[in-house]
Each structure stands twice: as structure tokens, then as C-alpha cells.
Amino acid sequence: MVRMDVYTDGACLGNPGPGGWAVVILGPERRELAGFVAATTNNRMELTAALEGLRALPAGTKRLADCVVPSFTNPNNLS
Q: Kind of pairing, strands 71-72 and 5-12?
């Protein structure tokens, strides 16, 4: 079983306003992703970061049963 740590964060300036999200995946290889949306909300960016992190997992780990994927994010937004 492969362990991959997925760190996520999202933020927004104003609500709604310009926002962004970022993901760092630590596993056999390190991977970083980020994105920007011109008009969005903080919650949307937090959720987008988590979803993009899961989408970015390697093809062999698409089923969460095949790997351990703890996600480190803001618990106030994804509880």
C-alpha cells in the first residue's frame, strides 16, 4: 500500500472575490498544483483544492482502498 500525504488550501479576497487554491502531494514523488478563479468564495476554493488533490493522484491510486491518503486541510471548511 502506498502512502500519499495531500496538503490542500484555498483562499479568497472578499466573499465573493478573486481566489485561489493549492495542493502539495507527498508520496514517491512530490507534486504541486495551484489554480485561480476571478470571482469565487473561500469555501469553493477550499473544496476545489481537496477535489483537485484527489484527481491528481497517480492512476494506480484512484481507488482510496489502494492507498492511504490523509488530507491535511482547514478543518473548519471540510468537516
A: parallel
